[in-house]
Specification:
mainly alpha; globular
Length: 191
Amino acid sequence: MDTIILKELFSVTLILFSVIDILGSIPFIIDLKKKFKKVDALKITLVSGLLLYAFFFIGESILHLFGVDVQSFAVAGGLIMFFLGLEMVLNIEIFKHDPQLAYNSPIVPLAFPLIAGAGSMTTLISLNAEYHKINIILVVFLNLVIVYLVLRASDFIDKKIGVSGSIILRKFFGTILLAMAIKLIKNNLMA
């Protein structure tokens, strides 16, 4: 039986928050707002939520279709989280983004792949191998609320934290993500 565990909620929230990295994406969001004049925070949050929950609930079935067990996928997800953390800490680009998709619609770069991209989807499946489902469901919702609030207040946040604050947040959450990725890989390799 799934139970809500506060320590788990906190850990999973930090992991998913680090992967989504909505605060580190504020400069990108500001740039999109300038290009599109209006970014619909609610619509982007709802599309992101639909993608994240859909992958969380049917992702494992898709894995079984390809003959992959959850532990192996968790190790692969841990590796992706590790490289995402390296990107954040070292300020390098490991995962290349398709420039053709970048500016066709604000939903495409924001909802997918920025919020509900390969990293967050892989992370959800990986977390499913380690944590209770109810905690992950709640954490996805909590992160979507944070995403919505950040999208709504991105101009204000950008002015308050500035470039230095954004860099510090990105490096801090990148380090947390690296540590969580190593733990996830280690636990699932032992399993």
